[in-house]
Each structure stands twice: as C-alpha cells, then as structure tokens.
C-alpha cells in the first residue's frame, strides 16, 4: 500500500458500489433507502452473498439487483475464493466494495487496496477480530460492562477488523441494556456512519497519510 495518497477522484456520476452480504441484508436496505431519499448518490450493479439462504438475497432480488452467491466451501483455498469475488467486481466496474455483514475473510488484490470498506459494530480496537461478529459483539459488550460502544468504518485488509479506520461513532451503553438493545442502538448509528463515509470516498475527500486515514478538511489544517 502507498503511504500517502488520495484514494478516489471526485466523481461526476453515482458511485458504483458492490455490496457483500452474509445475513439479512439490513445494511443493503439502508443503502437503498438512503439512495432513494437522495442522501447517497450510488448505483449497486452487484450484490454478492456468501450463502444462498441468507435473507439479504431475497431483499436484493426484490430490489431488482443482480445478486450472485459465492460460497467459501466451493473453493479450494481463500485465494481462489477471493479471486472469484473480485473477478465479478471488476466485471461490474465497481468503484468501491462495501462489506455489509460479510463474515468470510477475503484476500484483497492490489487493484482493490483501499477500495474495500467494512463496518464493525464496535469501536475498534475493542471487541474486534476473529470470533467477534454480529450479536456476539454486543453480548461481549454487555458482559464486560463497558459504558460506551459504537461502530467503526474502516478499509479492509487481509486480517479481521484490522485496516485503517475511516470513521467511528460512539453509542452510550446503560447498565440495564440487553445485547438486543445495544445492537439496535448501534445499528441506528451504523445507518448514518456508513453512508457518510461512502459519500466522503465518492467526493475524493479521503487521504492516506502515514498509513492513517485523514479527511480532506483535516488535511487542510495540518
């Protein structure tokens, strides 16, 4: 990865987004709702699901989106699995890949470095990494008794929840909150944070400086 670079030119058209899902497709639905409301200038030429029975497949098809299923078990190794995914992304000529509840580790090729975003339902580096996904994150948050959780959007690399952090949003956790309540509050925050980070990418405002993400407004004050 290059040390210092602007990641995306300013686009004079909707951002072409590939959305990767493993579950119910709630983040995909949020993207579609934001697009319909004029709050997110995107096209979604491709949805990829990691299994055929996840609820997001039906949601994608109901929205008239192309949805392909690529299962890890159908490939000999992670490299072949990853190449199948990014071959489709290249064919669809997407500008950005959004992991939206995607659970499988993938290898990101050079031409997609800093072009794959993920959202994690906690404040990285807390409650992240292998084994921390979905409801397990919120169960761990409640069990530990932390007072603040939230969500993190970051560029994905070849480790779980490890790439450069783009943005975070904090959510208070009350001592009486259940994991379900924490999950609901965090998801509300996700619904605003993820589209906002995608808008910054599309506007060409995200830079990498010394392997850290810096937003254009912040760069101007350095």
TrEMBL record:
Which residues does the UniProt site feature Raises pKa of active site His point to? Answer: 161
Q: Which family does it belong to?
A: Belongs to the GART family.
Organism superkingdom:
Bacteria
Task performed by this protein: Catalyzes the transfer of a formyl group from 10-formyltetrahydrofolate to 5-phospho-ribosyl-glycinamide (GAR), producing 5-phospho-ribosyl-N-formylglycinamide (FGAR) and tetrahydrofolate.
The name of this protein is Phosphoribosylglycinamide formyltransferase
Q: Which organism is this entry from?
A: Gimesia aquarii
For this UniProt entry, the molecular function terms from Gene Ontology, in alphabetical order, are: phosphoribosylglycinamide formyltransferase activity
Tell me its EC number(s), please. 2.1.2.2
| Annotated positions binding (6R)-10-formyltetrahydrofolate | 118
User: Which residue numbers delimit the Formyl transferase N-terminal domain?
Assistant: 16-198
Q: Tell me which Gene Ontology terms the entry assigns under biological process.
A: 'de novo' IMP biosynthetic process
Query: Which keywords label this protein?
Result: Purine biosynthesis, Transferase
According to its UniProt record, which residues of this chain constitute the active site?
120
